[in-house]
Amino acid sequence: MKGLSANCSDFPAINICFQDPEISFLFAELLEARGAETRLIFDTDHLPETGKIVTEPIYFHLLPERMTAKNCLLVGNPGCFSSQSAICLSRPLTADKIETAITELLD
């Protein structure tokens, strides 16, 4: 992977929440390969109030506004993003697009 590795002590765990657990595990592996600590969320009742999150548009409305601007990476189909305040990653997903989005989230 391109880019610099993160140091786990540089920032708190990045939250990951998708309907499909396999997608959550995939993004966790990608972030952990960059040195980031991750926290998988499988119940929307446990969505965080602060910090960074990787999720999909169906959960966006559940997030506090302070989490959306540059602290949220939304992954989904083109045209399903209701907010430009989040970092948006749309299909088709490519290695370059994923790398760019992860780098922006970690910065």
Structure characterization notes:
This protein is α/β, with parallel strands linked by helices. It has a single domain (about 10-105), classed as 3-Layer(aba) Sandwich (Rossmann fold), CATH 3.40.50. About 30% of the residues lie in helices and about 20% in strands. The protein has helices spanning about 20-35, 55-60, 65-70, 95-105, and strands at about 15, 40, 55, 70-75, 85-90. The protein has a five-stranded parallel beta sheet. The protein is globular, with a radius of gyration of 13 Å.
Features:
globular, alpha/beta, Rossmann fold, 107 residues, five-stranded parallel sheet
Strand-helix topology:
Blueprint: E1 14-17, H1 21-33, E2 38-40, E3 53-55, H2 57-60, H3 65-68, E4 72-76, E5 87-90, H4 95-106
Parallel strand pairs: 1-2, 1-3, 3-4, 4-5
What is the strand arrangement across the widest sheet?
2-1-3-4-5
Helix fraction bin:
25-40%
Question: What would you say the CATH architecture is?
Answer: 3-Layer(aba) Sandwich
Beta strand %: 15-25%
Could you say what the CATH topology is called? Rossmann fold
Low-pLDDT windows of residues: 1-5
* Number of domains as seen in the coordinates: 1
Helix vs. strand class: alpha/beta
CATH homology superfamily: Response regulator
**Number of contiguous helices:** 4
Instruction: Report the average pLDDT across residues.
Output: 88
Which value, in Å, is the CA radius of gyration?
13 Å
Secondary-structure element sequence? EHEEHHEEH
Q: How far apart lie the N and C ends?
A: 16 Å
The biggest sheet amounts to: 5 strands, parallel
Please count the beta strands (DSSP E, at least 2 residues each): 5
CATH class: Alpha Beta
**What shape does the CA trace take?**
globular
